[in-house]
Amino acid sequence: MNELKRSFGYERIVTKERLQQKKERPNKQRASNSKQTLLRIWHAIDEKRGALIAVLFLVLISSLLTLAGPFLLGRVIDEYIVPGTWDGLSTQLLLLIGIYAALSLSMYTQNVWMIDIAQQTIYKLRTDLFAHLQRLPIPFFDKKQHGELMSRLTNDIETISQTLNSSFIQVFSSVITLTGTVAVMLYLSPLLTVLTMTIIPMMFLAMRWITRRTSILFKEQQRTLGELNGFVQESISGQEMTKTYAQERRMIEQFDEKSAALQKTGYWALVYSGFIPKTMNFLNNFSFAIVAGVGGWLALSPASGVTVGVIVVFAEYARQFTRPLNDLANQFNTVLSALAGAERVFELMDEPQERDEGLVLPPNHIRGDVRFDRVTFSYGKETILNRVSFEARAGETHAFIGPTGAGKTTIMQLIAQFYDPIEGTIYFDEHRATDLSRRSIRDQLAFVLQDAFLFETTIRENIRYGRLDATDEEIVQAAKQANAHSFIERLPEGYDTVIAADGEQLAQGERQLLSIARAFVADPAILLLDEATSSIDTVTEMHIQEALLTLMKDRTSFVIAHRLNTIEQADVIHVLRDGVIVESGSPHDLLERRGMYYDMVQTSRSNSS
Known about the structure:
By secondary structure, the chain is α/β, with parallel strands linked by helices. It contains 20 helices and 10 strands. It folds into 2 domains: about 300 residues, ABC transporter type 1, transmembrane domain (ABC transporter transmembrane region fold), CATH 1.20.1560; about 240 residues, Rossmann fold (3-Layer(aba) Sandwich), CATH 3.40.50. The protein is elongated.
């Protein structure tokens, strides 16, 4: 189906998003979206929740050990160092070493487990997203840059991966450490605790001011990155066209424009987010200065009951109090970027899938009768087909001719169920197309196209793509029927030769022969053929024509061809103009009518003589 879409060359309808989003969504809506996104990520971890609970338990243990170290150190200072008592000091020091050793082991274990959780979750998300893409309707891809979709599948998924790998543990650990630190600080000195916590209002005001701007900028950065990726992917695919029309300079200018947009959004996103750690660092030092000044005065006042050990330990806890805040601030940028990426991923996963309900027919159940009953179709506001009607009986060959844009390709796409008609009905045998599952219909279709799409795998697997359960013997037989066996055998690895991107090492005619072999393996009831014998040498064309005649035998075939001599054996020829069938009949009947087909034949003969 991708092969048909790539080769038919219809005009894609691309909707361009705005380069800059200047209106900020309401905070309430943004918070709601972030909450829903986090909830969906939580659901994605479903299979690893047991392991996640174990990680959270280890994080709790690590946080408690982090708090225990300084507390024990203060005890050593007050009970052993200040009094000059050496009895039992070595035991306390060994205990302190044990605490930090257990802390290191716990942190290492939780990191390893979290990596496994993150990778399994990302694997599931990536697989689910790719599977969802395969089920989206063709009109969706008409409106999206392919590179932008690739960016969601790679870059946006990667930002989620980075957050799960590192930020999740860091955030949870910081919250626990912060809570425990405040509790211990209150136990040691309520006065110093209150003074230390005066930085919190300033911190939250600064964070609110910064994050209101960075959240928008990070989303814009992900969007412009997707646009840039889409442009790069299309420019690489269209290199031949670019060089043919000497448009390299224009392509560079367009790339520079999109790259500059990404540079601008990336610059401001990082500038604003860079305020966070710097602001936190200032507030951290400000808090430490308060503790040092006030704590020193308390230590010198006998009535305060504050010892040197308490001041040393409190200073360390004051550092620990601001360190989680610093960590939270530093991780905030990563989390914002991940949320922006996750929103884009889930936005794509929320796109409605292609309709595929309806009667599921057994294999080989469709005879091959196809009927269009007053079918109308439009791309946007442009009407492509207008009340088109025809009937093809099983085994007949119907050819469509007419000028570019007459609607020939659209008829093929409607038969393939890539689109639904705006009006009218399409029938397969006695069934309405809408009453059948699309898979049932497409299982009975095969495509042979001018620009045959080949995958980067072996020739054997490319032919087997027509029917995945085909045996090696059936593949060889199909290649022989398609007149492809002889050239395949001449290749270095024969059927195991790996084809490069789009089959670049093969001639166009050889690629078409492989496409015909693929159709033989599929053994369909209905064939769709588009320009299958253009732009190739005479000998190869003879091989293709011979193979096609064998392939088309006893199958309903629909053919598009600009060269009239390739459709002289058709049962019925339909002449289209401006989306309307202006005449239909056998080649002989149409010549006798001396209508549009007659004029085209005379013109063709004059040009060839």
